[in-house]
Amino acid sequence: PVNLTGPDPVTNGEVTAAMGRVLRRPTLFAVPAPALRIALGDFAEDVLGSQRVLPRRLLESGFSFAFPGIDASIRAALR
User: Fold this and answer.
1) CA–CA separation, 47 vs 76, rounded Å?
2) Is residue 45 part of a domain?
3) Are the C-beta atoms of 66 and 59 separated by less than 8 Å?
4) pLDDT tens, 3-27?
């Protein structure tokens, strides 16, 4: 089994900033956690929670990532 993640873990804030850059949209503020809990109920914990996961086995095997950075990954996903 392998972890299917990018080689460089990023925070939610970093993903949001990258999406703003790629989409050329402002990312001025974060949604407060209590507002997400009200809007999303139990699903909010899935959005708010995080884990630092590395694709260790892929990295050790020399796997080459087509889109190693978050910006390139978002651009590819939008194609």
Assistant:
1) 22
2) yes
3) no
4) 889 999 998 889 999 999 999 999 9
